[in-house]
Amino acid sequence: MTRFRPMDWGLGVLIAAATLSGIPGATRAEALPLNNPAEADAAPIPRILGPRGSDVGSAEAGFPEAYVLGPGDRIRIDIFNIPEFSGPENGIHEVLVDGTLSLPMAGVVAVQGLTLAETQAALVASYAPLLTRPPQLTVTLLSARPVRVVVAGEVNRPGTYTIELEAEASGSSAGVGRQWPTLTQVIQAAGGITQQANIKEIQVRRPQRQGEAILTTSLWDLIRTGDISQDVRLRDGDTIVIPQAIAVLPEEAVAISSANFSPEEMPVQVVGEVASPGGVTLPANATLNQAILAAGGFESSRAQRSTVELVRLNPDGSVDQRTVNVDLAAAANDTTNPILRPNDVVIVDRNVAAAAGDTIGLFLRPFTSLTTVLRLLGF
Q: Looking at the whole model, is its pTM more than 0.70?
């Protein structure tokens, strides 16, 4: 049976002090096998880059899926046959803001950046000098800290996002956070992708103690073939980079618009000779024809039906304007029925007859007013 050596308390304090001044509290031993559900959620990986961006192969390269500890994590330590340091009463500890655990007898142990298996090894090394033989020790994650990730590139609201983990009830009174947020969930929180997003080459960058691992994933494969492995489970400290696409085919844009990581709606202005001019709200990646129909369609007797003007404000502040030949029967295409972007302005001009009538009316308006005045005076 594992037990403490018989000793008086004075000698015990001296040994503990000597232990804390040595290496056990800061030792990061080699990882030991540990069967824990929090470490067993690796998914197939399409492509992985090494710390300096070099391609190192496929899933065999080991994109780090195992959870690593950090400030705010709560763990439970169980040492066989030593209840004084174990269990729900004496074995529950929280990682402090400096990334350490403060443990009885073992003292301060640095665990930030360690997996549960590596933490177990570090604790074994810390407790071993205090016991008659190496301790039989297990570490369990009780509750995980919130996941804090960065989203950059082609999303509507890039920035830092903090996501609380959903807790899954366990056999004890504590809950274990197991529902790691997915890539699509975080993109949704960032307002969805822009229409210039390249969803075929999204990068997930995960920090490691020896550099950075980079995974390139494709949400296009997710919506096209249902490959759920592309919807990567994220960890605290991950960075998501969504690049800009060189070109997006109209048929691809329509398919992407129905995905849950695209914005649901976008505002567009339709002005001029339509039944209900003004702002309209359209589905993401809606076309020119949809905007015209949402505004009530062309004004029957006044609208120029063959062409409209499309005005677009670019992210860099410049403005593009072009004339579009309208074909209400056409599918989405860049020539006659282009896909719109948020805040586009569609201008429907007057036809020749309406322009001529308005001009004549402008000239006749003073005479019309004079005729009305004379009639009121009885002339």
A: no
d(CA 136, CA 83): 12
Residues linked to residue 176 through DSSP beta bridges, in sequence order: 168
Q: Convert the pLDDT of each residue in 143-178 to its tens digit.
A: 888 899 999 999 999 999 998 876 543 333 344 445
Domain that holds residue 118: 68-143
Residue 37 in this model has a pLDDT that exceeds 80: no
* Cβ 291 vs Cβ 346: under 8 Å: yes
Other beta carbons within 10 angstroms of residue 330's beta carbon come to 14
Q: How far apart are CA 212 and CA 238, in angstroms?
A: 10
189 forms bridges with which residues in the sheet? none
Structural domains counted in the chain = 3
What is the SS3 assignment for 321? strand
Annotate 163-182 with DSSP letters as a single string. Answer: EPPEEEE-SSSSEEEEEPPB
Residue 61 · residue 67 · CB < 8 Å? no
Tell whether 247 and 333 lie within a shared domain: no
Is 120 within 8 Å of 34 (Cβ atoms)?
yes
